[in-house]
Write a structure and sequence with these properties.
98 residues; alpha/beta; Rossmann fold; four-stranded parallel β-sheet
């Protein structure tokens, strides 16, 4: 199973994962990274890297963000270029990953 990291402004991603887990009644390898408005890009990048390692899978990782052109997406693009990561800008799709 692929790992999923949801990177969003604030706690939106954490809440999406909480709801998805309650609906699916299973513990899939999902995690979220909350990007705070006063956080440095380096700190955010470090949090994303840790999250990617947490859900790493031989089948790959899906990295989801909440808004194209926003800070979460811009920082995630650096992982897309370096790693075997697929990037999606539509976190709402998380509920369809069953």
């Amino acid at each position: 199973m692929i790992g999923v990291v949801v990177v969003t402004h604030g706690i939106i991603g954490k809440e999406l994962i909480r709801v998805a887990r309650s609906i699916m009644k299973a513990d899939y390898p999902f995690t979220a990274v909350a990007v705070e408005h006063d956080e440095s890009p380096e700190k955010t990048r470090s949090k994303i890297e840790s999250a990617l390692q947490e859900v790493a899978s031989s089948q790959g990782t899906l990295l989801m963000t909440d808004m194209f052109g926003g800070t979460p997406t811009n920082i995630c693009l650096s992982f897309y270029r370096k790693m075997s990561v697929k990037l999606s800008q539509e976190s709402i799709c998380l509920c369809c990953l069953k």
